[in-house]
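hiii so um. not sure if this is the right channel but i have a protein structure encoded as tokens and i wanna go backwards to a sequence. like what aa goes where. can anyone help
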């Protein structure tokens, strides 16, 4: 680790001061560093290819954002949790030095996670691309009216949902919106997609687990507002007849871990309120 980027979350007051503290700590150990706001995407994109690792100071939303920025260069992420949940982070504000010390000593492992790529097709052409570590969601807008969403997998019709939304989640996203909607929990080392309907009415209401190379097509039928969101970002308006095609991205998301591989289950049980 010779060149490390540090991304702070400008909406969290203590994030930037801690970023400077982490920078000083790394410089003392001979590591070249760069510090910037995670929302300054132009500057971050210019630097990202040079990083051996990115340290993210924020919550899970910040980590999701960093994962999309790091995706083209396969740069691994080390998260220091400064948010409410921190499910994706590897350190806390009180223990980051000891954990980063392990990283610099080479006592770590890289965890790869499936990333989703969604292409929005309209009138026979792709008008926008989206990338997600958690999920792609096609759902209703402000109107309290259901959508008709035709699901095809590898070109074959599976079913047509009458529902509020369809969630296409990665294993990472299986613990987020998909879990809240009744989907299964998948450990992050799996390479599967989960399709979960939300409030399905008189139609298939069971989640589907699909293989990693599945081509998932969602055909939109509606006469009112509908939106597409990736990792909970601001929704993009959809039109009747739009087709969203979701596939595995060629690159995986990558995280630096110093905890044991079974950390996921321990962390999950804590977040669900269970204690061993």
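sure thing!! here u go:
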């Amino acid at each position: 680790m010779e060149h490390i980027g540090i991304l702070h979350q400008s909406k969290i007051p203590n994030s930037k001061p801690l970023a400077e503290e982490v920078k000083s700590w790394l410089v003392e150990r001979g590591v070249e560093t760069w510090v910037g706001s995670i929302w300054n995407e132009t500057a971050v994109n210019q630097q990202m290819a040079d990083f051996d690792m990115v340290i993210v100071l924020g919550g899970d939303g910040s980590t999701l954002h960093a994962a999309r920025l790091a995706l083209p260069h396969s740069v691994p992420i080390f998260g220091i949790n400064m948010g409410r949940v921190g499910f994706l982070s590897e350190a806390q504000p009180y223990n980051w030095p000891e954990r980063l010390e392990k990283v610099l000593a080479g006592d770590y492992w890289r965890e790869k996670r499936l990333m989703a790529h969604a292409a929005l097709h309209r009138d026979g052409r792709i008008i926008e691309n989206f990338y997600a570590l958690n999920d792609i969601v096609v759902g209703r807008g402000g109107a309290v009216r259901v959508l008709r969403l035709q699901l095809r997998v590898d070109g074959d019709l599976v079913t047509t949902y009458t529902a509020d939304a369809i969630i296409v989640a990665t294993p990472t996203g299986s613990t987020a919106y998909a879990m809240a909607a009744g989907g299964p929990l998948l450990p992050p080392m799996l390479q599967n997609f989960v399709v979960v309907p939300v409030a399905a009415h008189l139609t298939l209401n069971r989640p589907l687990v699909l293989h990693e190379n599945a081509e998932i097509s969602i055909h939109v039928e509606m006469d009112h507002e509908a939106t597409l969101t990736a990792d909970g970002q601001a929704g993009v308006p959809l039109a009747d007849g739009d087709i969203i095609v979701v596939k595995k991205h060629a690159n995986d998301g990558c995280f630096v871990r110093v905890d044991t591989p079974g950390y996921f289950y321990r962390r999950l049980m804590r977040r669900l309120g269970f204690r061993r």
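oh and The first strand starts at residue 3 and ends at 8.
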